[in-house]
């Protein structure tokens, strides 16, 4: 259940046992994902707690803004608790179906939230963690931040609104991030627009102290922006992706994943050769089906509204446990841990365009 909250800043003792901690201090609602041993991976119960608390604070005039963070020093949130979804499917339960419907509803609610949301993205921000933060007004990264949509590595596709926010990154950078699943750090997160403030992690305590003392003058969003401007910066030099941008824009605009890998293998220019070879090797380790569906999904998402992007992801979800590579990916990487997933199809060359297209059948009629 959701922690009962006192507006004076004390939270109930029950909250200390919760996977989500909720507290109000100085008119700011603080929500903390509290599973540090599990890198704050979110469960269905946590999704429900977060949504209930946000709904309650939306109607509470004494709460002016919300801060999202993760407990511990390693992660804001390393994604959804995928093991529980695997178990649900294997046991013939429906938790995995409920999870995506409710998780997407929570993410959408954050995008449309009536009060400013400040997300402190310290440590890992992966998958479902990205879904929680990309709708926030103020997204703060630190030197410890590692952002990614790594789903293709376990035979899945970048959901939680990824079909909306990834293709809206300039050029083909978001396509690259979604199809490859690579992690980026703070400078690249700012460069891509996946974060908008940088703060050294050792200043997070000072930020908290300043939030507790903040005098509310203007609109809450402007007050928070003014505070961040005193402590944080909005750009960092030497974003690695800025140098790779011309190559990424070329390769990831190619028609399909086999073409991308084939042309990456042909790069001989010295300063791009190592990146191209490493990227090709990485793509060949991922699920061919997941990458192909991801590429199509992101290209469609570029032209869809936020709501329709979530609808498209749900359309794919409803087929993916039966027809996709997720169950095999989880088995190989999390259950048996043999790290040898038997993807279906096993290679990019074996991909069938009609099979990829079949995942999108019916969406144009029902998804908009």
UniProtKB/TrEMBL annotation:
<dbReference type="Pfam" id="PF16113">
    <property type="entry name" value="ECH_2"/>
</dbReference>
<dbReference type="GO" id="GO:0005829">
    <property type="term" value="C:cytosol"/>
</dbReference>
<dbReference type="InterPro" id="IPR032259">
    <property type="entry name" value="HIBYL-CoA-H"/>
</dbReference>
<dbReference type="InterPro" id="IPR045004">
    <property type="entry name" value="ECH_dom"/>
</dbReference>
<feature type="domain" description="Enoyl-CoA hydratase/isomerase">
    <location>
        <begin position="28"/>
        <end position="360"/>
    </location>
</feature>
<dbReference type="GO" id="GO:0006574">
    <property type="term" value="P:L-valine catabolic process"/>
</dbReference>
<dbReference type="InterPro" id="IPR029045">
    <property type="entry name" value="ClpP/crotonase-like_dom_sf"/>
</dbReference>
<dbReference type="GO" id="GO:0003860">
    <property type="term" value="F:3-hydroxyisobutyryl-CoA hydrolase activity"/>
</dbReference>
<keyword id="KW-0378">Hydrolase</keyword>
<protein>
    <recommendedName>
        <fullName>3-hydroxyisobutyryl-CoA hydrolase</fullName>
        <ecNumber>3.1.2.4</ecNumber>
    </recommendedName>
</protein>
């Amino acid at each position: 259940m959701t922690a009962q909250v006192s507006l004076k800043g004390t939270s109930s003792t029950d909250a200390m046992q919760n996977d989500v901690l909720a507290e109000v201090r100085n008119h700011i609602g603080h929500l903390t994902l509290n599973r540090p041993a599990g890198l704050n991976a979110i469960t269905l119960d946590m999704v429900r707690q977060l949504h209930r608390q946000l709904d309650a604070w939306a109607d509470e005039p004494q709460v002016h803004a919300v801060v999202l963070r993760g407990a511990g020093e390693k992660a804001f949130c390393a994604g959804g608790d995928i093991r529980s979804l695997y178990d649900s499917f294997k046991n013939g339960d429906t938790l995995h179906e409920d999870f995506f419907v409710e998780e997407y509803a929570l993410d959408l609610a954050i995008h449309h939230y009536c009060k400013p949301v400040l997300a402190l993205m310290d440590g890992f921000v992966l998958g479902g963690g990205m879904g929680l933060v990309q709708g926030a007004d103020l997204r703060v990264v630190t030197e410890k931040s590692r952002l990614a949509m790594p789903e293709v590595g376990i035979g899945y596709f970048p959901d939680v609104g990824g079909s909306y926010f990834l293709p809206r990154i300039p050029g083909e950078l978001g396509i690259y991030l979604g199809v490859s699943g690579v992690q980026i750090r703070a400078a690249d997160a700012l460069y891509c627009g996946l974060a908008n403030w940088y703060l050294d992690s050792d200043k997070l305590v000072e930020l908290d102290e300043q939030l507790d003392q903040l005098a509310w003058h203007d609109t809450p969003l402007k007050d928070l922006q003014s505070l961040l401007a005193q402590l944080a910066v909005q750009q960092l030099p030497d974003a690695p992706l800025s140098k790779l941008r011309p190559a990424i824009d070329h390769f990831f605009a190619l028609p399909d994943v086999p073409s991308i890998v084939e042309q990456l293998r042909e790069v001989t220019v010295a300063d791009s050769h190592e990146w191209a070879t490493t990227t090709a090797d990485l793509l060949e380790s991922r699920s061919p089906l997941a990458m192909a569906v991801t590429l199509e999904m992101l290209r469609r998402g570029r032209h869809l509204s936020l709501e329709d992007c979530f609808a498209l992801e749900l359309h794919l979800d409803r087929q993916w446990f039966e027809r996709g590579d997720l169950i095999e990916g989880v088995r190989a990487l999390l259950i048996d841990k043999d790290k040898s997933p038997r993807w279906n199809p096993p290679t990019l060359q074996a991909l069938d365009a009609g099979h990829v297209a079949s995942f999108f059948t019916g969406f144009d009629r029902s998804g908009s």
